[in-house]
Amino acid sequence: MTINKLLVVIIIIFIKFGGCEKVFKSVPVVFKIYENESVLLPCYIQDNETVARVKWYKNNRLLGDTLDQHTLLPSRMYMHRNYSLQIDSLRAHDTADYTCEVIRPEPLGPIKQSHSIEVQCSPTVRTIPEEGFLEVRKGEYVDIGCEASGTPKPTIEWRKNGEAMALLEHRSRIRFRAEHRLLAGVYECIADNSVGDPVKAAIRVIIQDAPVVSAVRTFVHTAIGLRAALQARLDFAAPPAKTAWFRDGRPVKTDDRIIIMGHENSHQLIFRTVRKSDLGNYTFRAENKLGMADVSFKLTGVPNVASFKVDPSLNKATSTSFTLIWEVDSYSTIIEYNLWIRPYYGSRSPIDPDSVSTVGPAYFWSKIVVPGDSIDGPIHSASYTVRGLTPSTVYEATVTSRNRFGWSKTSAVLHFATEPGVGRTLPVTIDYADITPTLEEPESEQPENITQAHVFERLNEMPMSDSGAREKLNVIVISFLICSIIWLS
User: Where in this chain does the record put each Ig-like domain (predicted)?
Assistant: First the structure.
């Protein structure tokens, strides 16, 4: 075949199948349009073209044919005289590719032009599981998800208990191991495609585990004849827990005076009128098939923990003295206070020379006995001026209180500082009873009284070379023995 004949064949093929000739005046279009609106899909042919037949397709399905009366367009569709297709009241399922096929007389072949419709639909979402609830045991796997639909395709974000979750991608499913009860909660997926408002769906995840209980106050101060209440909180229990109150390992017996109340997660043991026999230790217990939890209480007449008051107008400081003020709750008269004072050391650590340690070489407490008052309460105030302190020195103080039921727990530590001064003196403390104070080193961090056995023990442990310290301690021991003899006589 010669080259000329080959060119003729190629030209005929191009003409027959609509090769490079410009037949359509319209161009392919992607229509992004909202529901319930109308759209016109063009199929404009050049004026000099002869058209034998026109067909419209939705994807690969025939919609209409100009020569086939049996092929009827849906009621919402209409083909104009220029062969353009109009679709009214668009629905989500109208999203598709639409093709106009123009069939021309022989030897010309058919030509096609396609348009696309994307009906913009606001998103919808369906949870997995559908009921929006999932309960698993601790250690099992949690598998939840949200199936979102809409045009364009929605993106999904997740929140847990209202807080955004830091996920690396927009995912429709989440799977994790239920290693801790804190992983339980309300998981919310949010689907958004910028069409209308975002939609949300929630899945409540419950992780079964042993109960967790707590209490705001476990040390409850009261007095004979008053009303008192022990209050516990059931923070977590899945499955639900059985609850009970115990005293010394035995269930608490209730009557008209002692009652048990429970509302939602709050549980109370109420004493309408406290008797002396009611004072003691109590336990609130919650138990389910996965475990048990307790919280212990003490109902007592012992004073509450004292609290120091910080007021620059009252906390008068000099170079060698400082006035301390504190308050304590007690329904009974306060017999006495133990005020403990010691310097606050900032010595260097032998391991790291740049670090600071609060453990000094002479980290001794000094106890001051402060008399109580004759007030029945419930609020008792006291103040004491500590004298003989070292100028420009930081001290720390703590206090305990005693009424007829016993000693309170130690208060929080208060730090204070003396004013700058001239010279240095050893810290000396004098109480109201004019008793000579003794520097004492507690066996533990909590202040406690030194005994005669402790004095002899420390005397025996002291190195022989430390004659000055031994001499001072001998004076203390002799004074201690003289006071004991006088008291016994």
Answer: 35-118, 123-204, 211-300
Low-confidence ranges of the chain (pLDDT < 70): 1-22, 69, 346-363, 422-489
In this structure, what are the phi and psi dihedrals at residue 430, rounded to the nearest 5 degrees?
-130, 125
DSSP category for residue 362? T
CB 39 within 8 Å of CB 118: no
**Of 311, 181, 154, 173, the residue nearest 238 (C-alpha):** 181
- Comparing CA positions, the residue from 454, 424, 435 lying closest to residue 364 is 454
Residue 185, beta-bridge partner list: 205
pLDDT in tens, 155-180: 999 999 999 998 888 889 999 999 99
The two beta strands, 53-58 and 96-103, are: antiparallel
Three-state DSSP state, 149: strand
Q: How far apart are CA 100 and CA 26, in angstroms?
A: 11
Q: Which residues is 200 bridged to in the sheet?
A: 190
Residue 56's H or E segment, with its range, is strand 53-58
Q: What is the pLDDT of residue 108?
A: 84
Which pLDDT score, from 0 to 100, does residue 22 have? 66
pLDDT at position 387, please?
A: 94
- What is the pLDDT, as a whole number, of residue 422? 62
Backbone angle region of 18, left / alpha / beta, with phi > 0 → left and psi within -120 to 50 → alpha: left
| 39 vs 24: CA distance, rounded Å | 19
pLDDT of residue 2: 54
Q: Assign 15 to helix, strand or coil.
A: helix
Work out the number of other CB atoms within 10 angstroms of the CB of residue 133. 12
Question: One-letter amino acid identity for 464?
Answer: M
The amino acid at residue 416 is F
Q: What is the pLDDT of residue 199?
A: 95
Report phi then psi at 475, rounded to 5: -60, -40
pTM over 0.70: no
Gap between the Cα atoms of 24 and 113, Å rounded: 8
- The beta strands (E) that lie in 362-478 are given as 365-371, 379-386, 394-403, 406-407, 414-417, 439-440
Residue 57: name the closest of 119, 106, 100, 113 by CA.
100
